[in-house]
Amino acid sequence: MMIDRAHDLRLRNRQLMAKLLVIAVGMLGFGFAMVPMYRQICEALGLTQTRAVAPMNTQVDASRSVQVELLATSAGLPWTFEAIDRSVTLHPGELATVRYRVVNTLERPVVARAIMNTAPANAARWIEKQECFCFSEQRLAAGEADSRRR
């Protein structure tokens, strides 16, 4: 009777171990599958901010002007990132070039990618990047400063 219980306990432990192993392997596979799924979801929703878009309207409305304020933050990273042009006034439909400056204050090279955010969020549909340093990773050597136009 005692041997049957021990055998039964070992059998149930093996079954539990097999189930847990299948769950762990499934979770690992799901984790790897999340990367392409996340990219597809972001691309479908237009959240990638890494695509160049041709201008929809090439006409400039000279009867109105808007002021766009440019802010930059390093999000707590040990380097400085700032908008050289703090604001730009332009007419709707007009192309503008803005400048940013980044300084790597670390004593080692850094690779990073900037992310554009628009506030208020509904203004994002009116602002399109034709060319941007945020489209690709940027490499800065130790102490290097770089001014970028975008």
Summary tags:
three-stranded antiparallel sheet; single chain; 150 residues; 1 helix; two-stranded antiparallel sheet; Ctag/Cox11 (Pfam 04442)
Would you mind describing this structure in some detail?
- The protein is an alpha+beta fold.
- The protein has two domains: about 50 residues; about 80 residues, Sandwich (Ctag/Cox11 (Pfam 04442)).
- Helix content is about 30%, strand content about 20%.
- It has a three-stranded antiparallel beta sheet, with no helix packed on it. A two-stranded antiparallel ribbon has the order 1-3. The protein has a two-stranded antiparallel ribbon with strand order 5-6.
- The mean pLDDT is about 80.
Task: Write the topology of this structure.
Layout lengths: L1 H44 L20 E4 L9 E5 L3 E4 L8 E6 L5 E3 L25 E3 L4 E5 L1
Quick gist of this model?
The protein is of the alpha+beta class and 150 residues long. The protein has one helix spanning 2-45; strands spanning 66-69, 79-83, 87-90, 99-104, 110-112, 138-140, 145-149. It has a three-stranded antiparallel beta sheet with strand order 2-4-7, with no helix packed on it. Strands 1-3 form a two-stranded antiparallel ribbon.
